[in-house]
Give the backbone structure.
Amino acid sequence: MSGTLPPDRVPGQTGRPNRLSSTMPETPPPVYNGRYELSRQIARGGTAQVYLAHDLLLDRPVALKMLFPELSSDHSFVERFRREAQAAANLSHPNIVPVFDWGEADRTYYIVMEYVDGEPLSSVIRTQAPLSATRAAGIAADIAKALSYAHRHGVVHRDVKPGNVLITADGQVKVADFGIARAIGASESVTQTGLVMGTATYFSPEQAQGLGVDGRSDVYALGVVLYEMVTGRPPFTADTPVAIAYKHVSETAVLPSVIEPRVPRDLEAIIMHAMAKQPQARYATAQDFHDDLERFMRGLPVLAPPPSPSPSEVGSQTIAIPVSPTLVLSATGLAVAPTEIQERVPPPGTGSGHPEYPKRRFVPWVLAAIVLAAALVVIVYIGGRSLGYFGGAVSFHPRDVVNMPYRKAESLLRGQGLDPIVTFQTGNEQSKFLVTSQDPTLGDLVKKHDEVHLTVSRGPNPIDLHYVVNLQLNQVEGQLKAAGFIVHVVYEPRNSAVIPSGTILSQSRQSGYYAYGTAVTLTVARGLKLVKLPFNRAVVGQQISAVRDLLTAEGFFINPVLQFSSTVANGLVITTEPAPGTKQPLGLTITLVISQGPAAIVPDVVHRTQGAAMALIEAAHLNVGVTPVTIPGIEPLYVTAQSPDPGTQEKRGATVMISVEQPNATTTTTTTPSVSGISSIP
């Protein structure tokens, strides 16, 4: 299964393609490069959107990042992106999310990265900040290790922020999106039309000014991230990114200990040193930043110089007494301008000499009336905007599209001015391509251009058909049916003398992934033809020649096996294997057990005289063979050895050889021809 993503608009983003939206045919989600099957959108950034995908080749989840088409149309950008994607793919570090692959499809470009099942640092800060000094320093040290490794390999991140840092369930820190921000040349301006480089909250001053950047820019950004971890908020905030960037260039951040008094002085020194305005005043490398964090965590003195107090921390003799803000209602909205009443406190002993008169008591009542009026204006304004007045958007209830075909659901929601976002998940065959849930629901209020998340069943997952030829039908039929295939069995019409019965000869579909309920036809061998053995138990006691001729004529093969028998005469059949009268395939080899008659037991004759030994052997129905030997010190005419060994079963009439000591060196061999024969000894 392969395919590309059909073009459409991303919900909530004008002009951008929605890769999982209404124009997609009612088939399982598209597969990139024949192996990356999209599942659902998991993130969206300034240059791309990220999908959870499944690598069908390696059977693992991956993250697939798809560039927006407006960037893909810039050939110079694409070429830089290709070079940087290759550079990022060469980064192999435990604290870096690796890049596996990159490619082109549907007039845009994508990269494939490791899917990290964890929580972004931005979420940790949002729910748990301020973090403890030790924990924040440990996370920052791991990020610094990743940056140091990347810098040594010529890659500058340029978009270090909490959203690009992932924390796994076991606490491992991984930095994502290496090389993506740097794919844009350093000479391009921050304010370039339609283009966002990095995130203004974490800009370095030189990056905010559109100047050249190096590893020290990442050091600054990491300092901002560490500042936010220990205080719960970034050092500079404003209504627009341009205003934030201006503050990075022109203002000095408030010391972290002013916001969070528990921040240790040494850690504060490290943060402010990393956030120095001039690159040469910061840590020279990310490794230096990491080493100073390690010193802090070990309780050693840090190398960062003590920070200077910011101008906002310098005391003043003027006490500012805040009062209620002035509210100004304009055609464009509600602007709030805080005001202050400043009271000069005269130094002690500098009275004017005139008596002080009581202040007029009506001033607090006037202020209270102003506050109440302002609150009423705010309430009226907010309520009016929710009803569509004062330029506000009208709130309404979305359509209930649960259990509706997802293409129709998307059309209805878009008709309401909403932006549907579709996420596919596995379901049953009955719910295939139906909406199983929506968020917001019918009971919630929404406004035009709000997103509505739809969960759609794509039916059962595609099932894997393996190559089953040459396997036995009883081994695979049940497995295929359990997986969701419909199995049809067709038997080969002809018998085979070679292929066993039940062997799968062919399958109607090649191995691969198929939809649930796909039919598969298996052609199976009938095997060998079974026939009844052409004899019964009466074969026992018959001559071997007659039985052999009968079996050979029917197409069987013979394997004769000799066996002693005290009940069946020599040369007659004792039994067969398989048993007589059973059905067997043609061409089978039949074992015939043939009688050798009663067995003769070889007696023990060593150390006996030659005459006594011969008498014992002949009494056992065996012949005797004598081999004269000369062994000094042995009494002549006694048996010194025999063959076969005593107790061996032999056929009657077989010869037993004995060695007999001679009185001289002359050696001859004689054999007694019969029981009554006499061996002559020279």
